[in-house]
Amino acid sequence: MFELINSGGEIMWLILAGGFVGLVIFLERFFHLHRSQIKIEDFLNGITTNLTRGNDLEAVSICDQTPGPAAQLVRTALLHRADDKEALTQAVQQAGIQEIPQLERHMNLLITLAQVLPMLGLLGTVLGLINMLIALQQASPLAEIGDLSGGLWIALLTTAAGLITGIPAYAGYHFLVGRVESIAVDMEQTAKEIIYFLTRPAGEHHEP
């Protein structure tokens, strides 16, 4: 295996390094997003139950102990519950805007790698063909297949490596985008429900 990689030349090592970085980014984002996506209904039930019973500090404590942006939106709402509805809504929206970049962290680099790695493979192909032509010219008119094999290996191996690393990076990026969108929907739902709960008329509050 090492011999095959080495046969691909410097471009091959560059592609593999980029593929490794892409894998690290994907795994870090995957586990971060998995941890950030909570059961919204159960979480909100716990919050509203404590608020109804007057346990405001306990509700804030639950937000602090719960991972993910949805919990941070609820925490923001609780800290601004004395504000009017417009100010409360604005505070929650601002908190949501600040949370989104945290969800998308490093994902631009992942999609960049997904686009660049196949291009590096193509570059390796071109360089391999150039090497073949140089070898052919130098050995002419008695060129043999062995004189051309080095360039051919570079062309084939770098092309394969670029696709093998680029395709999973591209698929992984879109998988993560789907998870971010799902969490964003949860955030929107959570924000609407907690704002409604905190601003509805006092007579509508009752023990769940």
Task: Name a few traits of the molecule.
8 helices, mainly alpha, single chain
Mean pLDDT: 86
Compressed to H and E, one letter per element, the order equals HHHHHHHH
Main sheet makeup: none
Q: SS-based structural class?
A: mainly alpha
Shape: rod-shaped
Quaternary structure type: single chain
How large a portion of the residues is in β-strands, by DSSP E? under 5%
Distance between the termini: 63 Å
Tell me the total number of β-strands.
Answer: 0
Number of domains: 1
Question: What is the helix fraction of residues, given as a range?
Answer: over 70%
- Spans of at least 5 consecutive residues whose pLDDT stays below 50 are none
Number of helices: 8
Question: What report would you give on this structure?
Answer:
The protein is an all-alpha fold and 208 residues long. The chain has one domain (2-196). It has 8 helices and no strands. The protein has helices spanning 2-7, 9-36, 40-52, 56-65, 69-79, 85-103, 107-139, 145-199. The longest helix has 55 residues, at 145-199. The chain is rod-shaped and about 95 Å long. The protein starts with a helix and ends in a 9-residue tail after the last helix. The model has no long low-confidence stretch (mean pLDDT 86).
In short:
The chain is mostly helical and 208 residues long.
Q: Which helices and strands appear, and what pairs or packs with what?
A:
Elements: H1 2-7, H2 9-36, H3 40-52, H4 56-65, H5 69-79, H6 85-103, H7 107-139, H8 145-199
Helix pairs in contact: 2-7, 2-8, 3-4, 4-5, 5-6, 5-8, 6-8, 7-8
